[in-house]
């Protein structure tokens, strides 16, 4: 009981807990959750949000360090662009591998996660290492590159507003535009999309890879600019993997990804508090997370089976 | 002399459909035997029984004079029977030798398998490099590998299902020459085929199936081509009322053509080779004018699938030129795979047509309105335009598709087996709506291409008929009698007209 109280207090117990812990944790989860949701909607199994996030973090750190002298809005805009471009490029490798050589993205994206992690490890001991060359991390970015806080005295930063805006835009594009409809059609049935709609499925899928990677890359930029102010190896405690849970819990709907990201952000914030105050290992929270995901998947499946039973597809031909 | 393989009094039913009734067939040792019949005559079913893939409901099977009972194809292989399926059963990532060793027992010995492939090559002239991965083999070589596989299991009786469907003419001639040598050395071969002339040129004996019964069994020498065709086709004529309809429509089209209207769809010297390298169509020249319903006939794999997709803009030709409007309506055979998305709503499925060319925002309210008018016009029974496509019966799905394609592409419509799996009422409605003149007199007439595997259905709607055979497309004029089907049936098997 103490543990649960600690969990709740750590996530929602105070305004500090909510605005500075829960929502700050939710911000990267929202970006990567959207990345996964977009990809899964098109049938692209992007398991590589983690690597794309790291690529975005690297590029935005490098830009922030190089452009320290420029005005703040320019630096921040540059970090956003670089983060998205790097994430998209990292996902683009997997897209190319799939398109040219038929390599499944489930394999390639997860492998690229490790490549990205090791690349970060090398960069922060090499070209991007801080000037004293003692710690394995980059120099701290200049004040002009730090993202503004949204509320006075709270750690919540610009990234959260961007992430929510991105969720709205993603939802609008998926449901209201021709491109979004093509993405959904290709995800539901590539054959029907190509035959009935004359949709260029490979091109649509390439676009989805890039968009998904860009969202994940933005998570990296937002973490560097809003939270860590430097690049180091542990910059993401596996956000790219939690993202899959975030997206699935939201049933791949961008609107629900917002709530789902806040829920998982709260769990992470609460888990830290629980470990501190009640001595319950935070692994317990991961187990809870896993149970939640399985529950959601089972419920979804049951609903599909029930729907199929109500409206049987007629047997055709012989 | 005992027969290599004899099937007697074979009955086979699938559910309520009877596939074979007292069918029989005797393959003499040292001969090539042609097994002929139209689509659905039961050829493949009979041979699948001989190969142990299916079990007969009644009847006897004898191999080299001994009564046998196969529980699986392994038993048939042990008895010395090999089968080369129309769709090859090979593993592309493995080498020739590995594919040959597959299905063997005990330890896999790469060197022994390779040696076996070389020995067979030396003995029979079927040479293949044992170390080549199968995915690098051309189609003809893959077929050779299938035969080598059978021979590696000591097959003395080879069953080949439509072996030349995937081969170039030269390759087909090589295969036949090889089969002749195989039979001279005491082997027996069964050719399941639609290609009458080829079969007669190579076979010693011929068996004809029609409607699941054996209607002719003879040596090739003793059976003139006409007799075989008569056996294949049977006494088939259209009911008089349909025959009248066909003629009436045809004269209307002729009047239009005289008026000099430009064709809506046209193919000039079009050839198509599929990604596997199989030539599917050769030098097709064809025009479809407004108001025409071009009927297309063809047996499985004769090229009609590709012809329809070329006309509908779902495939681009390898050679030659295709002229067609920017939008051509297409009703594909496999509705749930190619035409609709079952989980999406009717409105979304309507939006699917033209999804590739749409830009910017999707005007959902307008599309819902369109979906509603399609539902109304074709009397699609659905709870509403937001219902998932999955909730509709096959007939209502198909009616919706017809309405959608007509609305999307006013000028041309291509239909592939559009009434497959539908009940009688839905069949009649779908057929009528596809061949109906466009827009109830609003716009100009539509050009329609209509393929069905059922000759009667094609003749009931078509104003003109072309028949596909082995990648060639030729126009077939009606016979002297109004309802005479035999010219079409002859063209389907590649006979002289």
- Kindly name the structural category of chain B: alpha/beta
What is the global morphology of chain B? globular
Main pleated-sheet profile of chain B: 6 strands, mixed
Order of helices and strands of chain A: HHHHHHHHHHHH
What fraction of residues of chain B sit in β-strands?
Answer: 15-25%
For the biggest sheet of chain A, the summary is: none
Oligomer: heterodimer
End-to-end distance of chain A? 61 Å
The percent range for helix content of chain A is over 70%
The share of residues in helices of chain B is: 25-40%
Structure explained in plain terms:
The complex is a heterodimer of chains A (318) and B (497). With 318 residues, chain A is mainly alpha-helical. Chain A is 74% helix and 0% strand. The model of chain A is unreliable at 312-318 (pLDDT under 50). Chain B has 17 helices and 19 strands. In chain B, the strands form four sheets. Chain B has a six-stranded mixed beta sheet, sandwiched between helices. A six-stranded mixed beta sheet of chain B has the order 15-16-17-13-18-19, sandwiched between helices. The longest helix of chain B is centred in the middle third of the chain and has 19 residues, at 240-258. Chain B is globular. The two termini of chain B are 39 Å apart. At the A-B interface, helix 7 and helix 8 of A face helix 11 and helix 12 of B.
Q: Short description, anyone?
A:
Chain A is mainly α and 318 residues long. Chain A has twelve helices and no strands.
Supply the key terms.
heterodimer, A: 318 residues, B: alpha/beta, six-stranded mixed β-sheet, 17 helices, 19 strands, 24% strand, globular
